[in-house]
Amino acid sequence: MKPLLYAIPCLGLLACGPLPQSYERAHEVFLQEASSLSAPIINGEECSEDFAPTAVAIITEATLDLSVFGGQSSPFRAVSCTGTLIAPDVVLTAAHCLEADLLGGGFIPVVDAKFYVSFQHDLVYLASGADESVMGGGAESLPELPPDAILVKEELKHEGFNIEAFNEFEGGTANFYDIALAFLAESSDRSPAVVVTPEEFSTSADVDVLVDIAGWGQQEQSTGGPFDAPPEGSVGMKICALSFINEIGEHEMQIGNNPASSRKCHGDSGGPSYMDVETTEDYSRRVVGITSHAYDESDCMKGGVDTRVDVWFEWIDSAMSERCAEEASRVWCESKGVIPASWFDAEGEMVLPSAVEDFVLEGGEDDRFEDNNLDADDPGCGCDNAKSAPSNFAFLSLVLGFTLIQRTKR
C-alpha cells in the first residue's frame, strides 16, 4: 500500500503569484514534456514565501483503513493541494480538494481526515506522506507539521459540485462548480489576496493576458508508473511560473496551451492564478482562477483549466458574511464578506480595520464599511477577532482522484 501513499502528493496541486524576475518570458520558454500522472508547475522556478505570499500548501492528514484488505490502517500526512488566502481566516481552493474519499482511490476507506495550510516554501520532507517508519505506525510516527501550519476547522464546497461529473467530461471548459472555502481555526497575520470582481474581470481578462501561477507539486518528469515513488526531492518545493490565458469560457478558463507554455499540472489543484486588473484602486493584483482539471485527454500537454473566481464572487461573499452573523463561527470578522480592494495599499498590504476606524473617528468618511455591510461602530460582528502569532492560514486539500478522474482531474 506504500505506492498509493506516494501517489497522493504526486497528484495534489498548488499555485503562486508574483514571480522572480527571471520569469520575464512568457510564450517563448521551452518546457519539459508532461507525463499523465506526475508533473508540476511545468518549467517553473523555486520561489520563496515572498513570491505569491498568499499561496498556501495544503497538507492532508488522514488514515487509510486497510483492514478490509486484511492489512493495517496506515496514517499519513502529506502535501496534497493548494489554496489562496483571501481573508486572514479564509482560504479559497477547489472543491475536489475536499473530497477525502479520493485519497483512497475510491476503494480504500479514508477516515479521520483533516487539513492544514502552510506558507513554508520547502515542504519536501512532507512529499511522500509515509515512509517505512510511518507505514503501519500510529499518528506519533507521522512527519512533523511545519511551524506555521494552521488547522482548517470548517470546509465548504459549492453545493453544485459533484465529483462524478468529471467522468463524463470530454474536454475544454465546462462548469463543475469546483470551488470551495476553508475556514481556519486561527487567523493568519499575512495580508490576503484580493478577490477579483466580475466588473474587473470583464474589463481586464482576455486571451494572451499574463497570469502568475505556482505550486508545491512534482517538478520532474516521472519515468515510472503511477504507483512508483516520485524522484527524491522532486515534490514539496514551491515553484513559480509565468503563464497566460489561452481560452475563456463562461465558468472556466484555460491557462497555458501547449508544451511551449508554462502550465499547471498534478500537484497544483486548488491553487491560484493571479492577474493585474484595470482599476482606480492603489493595488491592482487579483486572484482570478482556481486550478481545477486538465483541458482534455492529453492531460497536462495543453495546460490546465481554472475555475473563474469572478463567476462565484457573490457565493464567496455570502458564505463569508454568513459566518460573521450573530452566532459567528469565523475567527476574523473585521470585514464580514469579501475584503474590498480599497483596504489595500499599493504594495498589497491590507489596511487594518483598526486603522480605518481611527480614520473615521477623526472625521473622515469611508465607504468601505458600506461595501462590506460593516458599521464603523461595530467591532467586527461579535467574532473572536484575536490575532494569531506567526502562524499562517490552514486549509483544505485533497488530491486528484487517480481512479475516478485520472485523466481529467488535477
Attribute tags:
mainly beta; disordered N terminus; 410 residues; single chain; Thrombin, subunit H; 7-stranded antiparallel beta sheet
Structural features, described:
- This protein is mostly beta strands and 410 residues long.
- The chain has a single domain, classed as Beta Barrel (Thrombin, subunit H).
- It is built from 5 helices and 13 strands.
- It has helices at 2-11, 198-204, 313-322, 353-361, 368-371; strands at residues 45-46, 55-64, 74-87, 90-93, 110-118, 150-157, 180-184, 210-215, 239-248, 252-255, 272-276, 285-296, 299-308.
- The strands form 2 sheets. Strands 1, 8, 9, 10, 11, 12 and 13 form a 7-stranded antiparallel beta sheet that branches. Strands 2-3-4-7-6-5 form a 6-stranded antiparallel β-barrel.
- The longest helix is centred in the N-terminal third of the chain and has 10 residues, at 2-11.
- The radius of gyration is 20 Å and the shape is globular.
CATH topology heading: Thrombin, subunit H
Query: What is the helix content?
Result: under 10%
Structural class: mainly beta
Write down the overall mean pLDDT: 75
Largest sheet: 7 strands, antiparallel
User: What's the level 1 CATH class?
Assistant: Mainly Beta
How would you describe the oligomerization state of the chains in this entry? single chain
Number of helices: 5
The N- and C-terminal alpha carbons lie at a distance of 22 Å
